[in-house]
Design brief:
Strand order of the largest sheet: 2-3-1-4-5
Strand content: 5-15%
CATH topology: Rossmann fold
CATH class: Alpha Beta
Oligomer: single chain
CATH architecture: 3-Layer(aba) Sandwich
Structural class: alpha/beta
Largest sheet: 5 strands, parallel
Number of strands: 5
CATH superfamily: P-loop containing nucleotide triphosphate hydrolases
Distance between the termini: 43 Å
Number of domains: 1
Length: 208
Amino acid sequence: MPKRNSNQHIVWHKSVVKKEDRQALHGHKSLMIWFTGLSGSGKSTIANALQLELFKKGISVYLLDGDNLRHGINNDLTFTENDRKENIRRTAEIGKLFVEAGIVVLAALISPYKEDREIARSKFNQGEFIEVFVECPIEECQKRDPKGLYKKAMNGEIKGFTGIDHPYEVPKNPEIILKTNESSIEECTNSMIRYLYENINLLQTREE
């Protein structure tokens, strides 16, 4: 993992336009919504559905999908423990920039380690990081297996696959738990919308 640049000649340059100014321009708060869960649990599907509903409501929103990021900025990373950590670090740093830009950013990644998720949270101010645990029994995830990855992992074609021969550390205190084996995508999306509007008061700047 790259170390923080400690060069004394590199100084943080403050922007004359503040995050609060950008939030006022967009008309809503900005925050990071982090979906975590096993492969096949429904993270990307729910995140995409939520993105669409927020967009329809006039919210400036963007989705950072783990697979998509690995096609670009994270295409040099493998699935070793260190590379998984770096994957999370980069995603969180990108998310932080979106939040500074006044945008609601969603991230859908397995992010199996509690420590990495806590490091990601630490980059944001209080209330700006929403951890969503997309809970689904591994048996159901294996049954769905939308990409055929569980089958390959169980056949030994994929090594270090989360839930098979690689651990997933269940979140202890996420802001939201969505049980996709019990609720539909629409119900999960509506639960997210209610949380953002009632608990986060997403449109606070509009009300002011």
